[in-house]
Amino acid sequence: MTDQSIESLLASSTLDLHSYEELYKHFHSHPELSLQEESTAATIASHIRSLNAGYELHTSIGGHGLTGILKNGPGKTILLRADMDALPVKEQTGLEYASKVTMRDDDELTKSVMHACGHDFHITSLLGAAERLARMKDNWQGTLIVLFQPNEERGGGAEAMVKDGLYDKIPIPDVCLGQHVMALKAGHVGSRVGTIMSESDRFKITIFGRGGHGSMPHRTVDPVVIASSVVLKLQTIVSREVDANEFAVVTVGKLHAGHTENIIADEAEIRVDVRTQKPEVRDRVLKAVRRIVHAECEASGATKEPLIEKSAKFPMSINDEAAAKRIEAAFTDYFGQKFDPNIACSNASEDFSILGASQNRPCCFWFFGGIDEKTWEEKEMAGRLAEDIPVNHSPFFAPAIQPTLQTGVDALCVGALTFLKNS
Predict the structure, then answer these.
(1) For 219-275, how does the pLDDT look when each residue is reduced to its tens digit (9 = 90+)?
(2) At CA 318, angle to CA 321 and CA 368, rounded to 5?
(3) What are the angstrom distances between the C-alpha of 289 and each of 146, 268, 273, 301, 421?
(4) Which of 155, 193, 418 is nearest to 311 (CA)?
(5) Which residues are catalytic?
(6) In three state form, how does the secondary structure of 245-262 look?
(7) CA torsion sign, 178 to 181 to 183 to 187?
(8) How far apart are CA 133 and CA 10, in angstroms?
(9) Beta-strand (E) ranges in 157-294?
(10) Hey, what long-range contacts does 12-17 have (CB within 8 A, 24 or more apart)?
């Protein structure tokens, strides 16, 4: 057999994506929150069965996680992963297929739901790659695993799948590969050797006061005032305690207290998200968070010690050097100038790497853009990228369907064939 390039193999095995564009719209308009991805998982499983391609399907792993295994003779085992969950965001894109879904979250509140992070693209891209690679079985050998993960947004899905016996059901992969759509120019792809995404520590902080009548604050200890002081003081950690040459982010994503205007609440809740890229910086920032919370509560006469509970933890995402170098060579050949081999490390976080790290296996992750190229260039020329290009988690985040979907499918196929292609 003549050794063909990956580019020529994919050129001779194209996939009509019209049906996948409609499937993407379905996923976008039917999002489900973390731990509630039941219908999404069922649609994925049904689609994989409909391919009649020989995938061995395993469902309900670590919640609603599922995998498909396609064995094709001796060779490497490669895992391709997509996440499935959506966010509690009210969509404001104005798209005809915009989400109108509401769901009850684990805090018992009913919330609007949106695929504001692009997981609908991840699902659809992986399903497209699963079909295309199955059609190309004469051109590769080994074992392909497609894995659809729940609960990425809260950092628990990958670990839950592993703890639920994932690797009793599927072969341990030689390499794990994953991707994420980002607010980058559509059709473009980027990766890097080493750290590609930040570590994240998330906390629920409860501050205890003494409630009472809104007209008698002198008879109370107001937790709203204490919480407000905490929020403001937390903003000084990065600006005054972290070296300007280092990376750290401290974000307060939620502050909640009370139910009406004439009652001073008994307690206030703050949700904090910390992002770092070095262990020593992480240690310094986390100590500062705890010190500030305790000091502000003591200074304000809080009725008892604050409660600081960890709500989620994401590991740093580190691309294995050998795997990333192979992906770099393959992506450079395939995408040419549209591939950036040294893309900036993202402030965002992922739990994808747990799938490999739990088995001491290498991982490689990359980003692909979703912003219409003409729109990007216009905003870049006007100096308004930050103001006018919605990022992930924005209610306005609406990647262009094409060429984003084509790029997502292509990248997964190139990634898999890098390790599976017949030589």
Answers:
(1) 999 999 999 999 999 999 999 999 999 999 999 999 999 999 999 999 999 999 999
(2) 90
(3) 39, 16, 10, 19, 49
(4) 155
(5) 85, 152
(6) CCCEEEEEEEEEECCCCC
(7) positive
(8) 9
(9) 175-185, 189-190, 194-197, 199-208, 212-213, 248-257, 263-264, 267-276
(10) 13/132, 13/135, 13/136, 13/139, 15/128, 15/131, 15/132, 15/135, 15/409, 17/128, 17/402, 17/405, 17/406, 17/409
* Polymer length of the chain: 423
The pTM of this model reads 0.93
Question: What are the phi and psi torsion angles at 68 (to 5°)?
Answer: -125, 135
| CB 46 within 8 Å of CB 55 | no
- C-alpha–C-alpha distance, residues 43 and 55, integer Å: 15
407, two tokens: 């790029």
Partner residues linked to 83 by β-bridges = 149
Q: Which pLDDT band holds residue 84 (cuts at 50, 70, 90)?
A: very high
Q: How far apart are CA 124 and CA 120, in angstroms?
A: 6
Among 208, 408, 213, 407, which residue's Cα sits nearest to residue 300? 208
